[in-house]
Design a protein that fits this description.
Elements: H1 2-13, E1 20-24, H2 28-43, E2 48-52, H3 55-63, E3 67-68, E4 79-82, E5 86-87, E6 93-94, H4 101-109, E7 114-118, E8 132-136, H5 141-150, E9 156-157, E10 173-177, H6 185-193, E11 198-201, E12 203-204, E13 210-213, E14 218-221
Parallel strand pairs: 1-2, 1-4, 2-3, 4-7, 7-13
Antiparallel strand pairs: 5-6, 6-12, 8-10, 8-11, 9-10, 13-14
Helix pairs in contact: 1-2
The protein binds ribulose-5-phosphate (5RP).
Length: about 220
Amino acid sequence: MNVEKNQAAQMAVKKIVNNSVVGLGSGSTASIFIELLAKRVKAEHMNVVCVATSIKSAELGSKLGLDVVDIDDVESIDVTVDGADEVDANLNGIKGGGAALLFEKIVASKSKYNIWIVDSSKFHNKLGKFKLPIEVIKFGSQRIFDSLQEMGLNPTYRLNDDYTRLLTDSHNYIIDVDINKFKNLNSLSRKIEGMVGVVEHGLFLNVCDELLIGGLNKDIRRSK
Ligand code: 5RP
């Protein structure tokens, strides 16, 4: 799949224009994009300012010579290029496989245009094969876990390799849930958002403007 991820990232990097603010996504595909962007900016002496969606992406971008600034130091972001864990033909998707969903959603919401880059295995007719990550604050998280259980969502805390609970960049937990049975994702999204202690979830509905699929060589734009 690396070849396809690379293809998608190549397609995206060509779309970046000079004098722009670019959001850097997180994950392996976004990392390929960051590398390609750094090369292009250097080679073409471009004036590009970047905002990152995770500590890891900020560090990678800075290491490669990109000008990575704090999100509050820019008025808006022209375009963000990010990966996704699953995406459907309406360009709705699930993100957060790399636990960066909170910053990813914040950066996306400040972006005028959001491009997702994926390999062909991520493109599905229906969302739900990939578990939906929910970021929750640590305090009282068992209460949320129990409610998700009651809703039939089969929750599991995301763990590190040593079986301790994974902490996000904001020091929260991730609870992964199975949304396969749910048809109305808008209503599910609202329900989860309404739970006290939930910080954010990985359902990105009506966020992606353009999807680039490596392998299939497809460029799908959201119909307005
Ligand atoms: C991180 C994300 C990533 O964009 C998503 O997990 C895709 O990652 P990869 O490109 O490594 O498959 O949402 O929180």
